[in-house]
Amino acid sequence: MLAGLPYDAFDSELTAARRVARELILRFNVELDEERRMEMLSGLFAGFGKGSFVEAPVFFDYGVNIEIGEGCFINANSVMLDPAPVVLGDRTQLGPAVQLLTADHPREAELRARDVEFARPVTIGDDCWIGAGAIVCPGVSIGAGSVIGAGSVVTRDVPAGVVAVGNPCRVVRELG
Description:
By secondary structure, this protein is an alpha/beta fold. It has helices spanning 12-30, 34-42, 109-113; strands at 7-8, 47-48, 53-54, 58-60, 66-68, 73-74, 78-81, 86-88, 93-94, 99-101, 103-104, 116-119, 122-124, 129-130, 135-136, 141-142, 147-148, 153-154, 162-165, 170-174.
């Protein structure tokens, strides 16, 4: 799965790992004490940087493949599907309802019918801002300092230091 090879999403080990994550998600999403909520994530995520904050509710598949840099802000209703790594650089901000998706499906119907999936990492550099409702598709990297407009669907890599918007997301100008 982590190597990007096809896998069975209903494998018993993967199903058990998702159950562990869902139990934590349920507790996280109803916990009122913010410090306790952040401790929950730091105990599960691959990395949870100092000063980072995740607003409830949130959803992820496993959690163990998510790495959040220092000083990040993740707003409410974020979705991080993480059968492959999801990496957020330092000081990156996600607006509400942002989706970071690493899970993908074969284009061939017969493979999808057999529950075959594969995954490709999502990497977001330092100091990025991802606007509300944006969707970042499997295998996409967003360069440091870039801004992704609200509602964008990011299907391809975005270079550093740009504003990119739309569906599909396209660079509209350079920053600085």
